[in-house]
Amino acid sequence: MSFDTLDGARRNYQALRYQPNAQAIQSFREFAERQYPEASKAASGSIFARILVIVVIAPMLFFLFLSMLGMLVSVVSGSSSPLYFVAGLVVTLILAGACGFGIWAFVKGLRSGGVYPAWFKLFYFANENGFRFTPLTTNPFYPGMIFNIGSGRQSSNRIHSAPNQRFFDMGTMRFVTGSGKNQTTHIWGYLTFQLDRRLPHIVLDSKQNNGNLFGLEMSNLPSSFSKDQRLSLEGNFDDYFTLYCPSQYERDALYVLTPDLMALLIDHSAPFDVEIVDDLVFVYSQRGFDLSDEALTRRLFGILDTVGAKTLRQSHRYADDRVPDSSMNVVAVPGQRLRSRWWVAIVTALVIVFGLPLLGILTTMIGGLIAVLTGSGR
Predict the structure, then answer these.
(1) At what angle do helices 37-76 and 22-35 cross, to 10 degrees?
(2) Strands 184-206, 211-213: parallel, antiparallel or unpaired by DSSP?
(3) Where are the transmembrane segments (predicted)?
(4) Of the residues 51, 61, 195, 199, which has the maximum number of CB atoms within 10 A of its CB?
């Protein structure tokens, strides 16, 4: 064992560096089909979908060839202009290139073994360190904001604690919003760990991953919170995060978010959004976590060792003053959840449903008016 495969907590990352051969992957696949039948079936369905795409692409390439042949004959016979053939050739090459890329990606996926090489690494990494690996979980029961919206909710490629360990879980969350042609699949990476005490609902919205619309900063979070719940903290913390906590719970938030914890959050979690809800802390990324990537997995465990450990120490004596019995591990109802800005979602929906069509009509009317005025001035 090389010491560079170990981190400060003696976790061994050697399994994430291993490159299994085809025989090892096949052997593990047979094991996974017995151990994880639901996840293996889903993976096989993905492979079937790829095969179906190839079945569609192959006839397309054949008909493209026939079309080009027909255009060439037409040009040679003099019934069509050579420009017609050149234009058709350009379009055909573009379509053929797209089809060729699809076939290349499909073949590459088959040669790489699909999901099984990553599963192989994650399984043995978890086993080596006394953790658990779960390739697929449907509707994970967490109170975090990304786990309770949309449909088709699935958590995949999870590395999580064993029953006798302090709870943690990291993986990739998928869910679908909308319906029909307006369906959108959302993919989030997450890390969660458990505290000893329940805390007020706190959200740290990272400013590094926010979008920008017409010069206005737009949060990437799937939930929106009332502005009167924002709390400004000392130092430069506000340059990295926007903090939300329930009204009248500002002092409680400051009790947990001490200057040294804020420094750790900036140093280790600045690109990520953070949510504290009940006795769980969630760290979010709007990209899935490829935990077979050693650097990423080390970083997530680093957050667990620094931000997680400090949050645990800082909060283990917390008690809500609004609860009569301080020994009870509960937060009063006003502090349990932040107030959401439902009007934002409603306005957004109205803009999409009514605003965009009206904008199109208005643009057409203005264009027609300009055309009339221009014509009358001639």
Answers:
(1) 120
(2) unpaired
(3) 51-77, 83-107, 342-373
(4) 199
